[in-house]
Amino acid sequence: MFARNAVSALKHGLINTSTSRLIHSSGVLGTKVAVVLSGCGVYDGSEVHEASAILVHLSRGGADVSMFAPEKNQMHVVNHTKGEPMEPNRNVLLESARIARGKVEALSGLKAQNFDAVIFPGGFGAAKNLSTFATEGTAMSVDSDVERVLQEFHTAAKPIGLCCIAPVLAAKVLPGCEVTVGSDQEEGGRFPYAGTAGAIEAMGSRHIKKNVTECHVDSKNKIVTTPAYMCETAVHEIYDGIGTMVKSILGMAK
């Protein structure tokens, strides 16, 4: 019944997806936080569990959330059942709308002056669509709007949150900062992407070892990071680690 009603509403233009803002369920506007998505799906976009965990913890913290994504094609599309590239290509903004329930705006419209903090979920989209880290490593380039947003929030001394692989964005754009992607050792397969820590150091930033349920707070630069799915672990530990990140960000933003 719901599906039929939703299709009918879309057909007749009754679902409004023109606004990007999610109002906290209490109806009271809180800390204004921008969440930057990179598509939908771990292998070619935003990691869905991470994005959802961020939104849940922001909602519980009373935040007023808006979502953004670059309006451009993905690096490629991956068949998530096979881990192989497939056609046709897809648009990052349109794919991100799946997570945002339609309420997402082009990243070009995100201005630090309108928000108290910004958060970047992980997923390979951060390394493929928000940057070229997946293909170029430490020689990576960063999407121009992603770079601008990070610099704007940093200059304004407003909190920046990043999880999973996304901390490489800050490491590149804001050299000298401190971030974590978990461990610099694989630890028997627990941290399969441990080599990322060395890349962070090579780009002129500092990697801090943290457990998946922890976050690292770079107080000087107001950057908060947590390993999330850089660690092979249970989903509730990912959720808990993201919770510590979001709590720290909201505390900084007040």
Number of helices: 9
Order of helices and strands: HEEHEEEHEEHHHEHEHEEEH
Principal-axis shape equals globular
Helix content: 25-40%
Beta-strand percentage range:
15-25%
Mean pLDDT: 91
Structure commentary:
The chain has 254 residues and is α/β, with parallel strands linked by helices. It contains nine helices and twelve strands. Strands 1, 2, 3, 6, 7, 8, 11 and 12 form an eight-stranded mixed sheet that branches. It has a two-stranded antiparallel sheet with strand order 4-5. A hairpin with a 4-residue loop joins strand 4 and strand 5. The radius of gyration is 17 Å and the shape is globular. The model is unreliable at 1-12 and 22-28 (pLDDT under 50).
Short descriptors:
34% helix, 254 residues, single chain, two-stranded antiparallel ribbon, alpha/beta, 16% strand
SSE diagram, text form:
Blueprint: H1 2-11, E1 21-22, E2 32-36, H2 48-60, E3 64-69, E4 77-79, E5 84-86, H3 92-100, E6 105-106, E7 117-120, H4 125-128, H5 133-136, H6 144-155, E8 160-163, H7 167-173, E9 178-179, H8 195-202, E10 206-207, E11 216-218, E12 223-226, H9 235-253
Parallel strand pairs: 2-3, 2-7, 3-6, 7-8, 8-12, 9-10
Antiparallel strand pairs: 1-3, 4-5, 11-12
How would you concisely characterize the structure shown here?
The chain has 254 residues and is α/β, with parallel strands linked by helices. Helix content is 34%, strand content 16%.
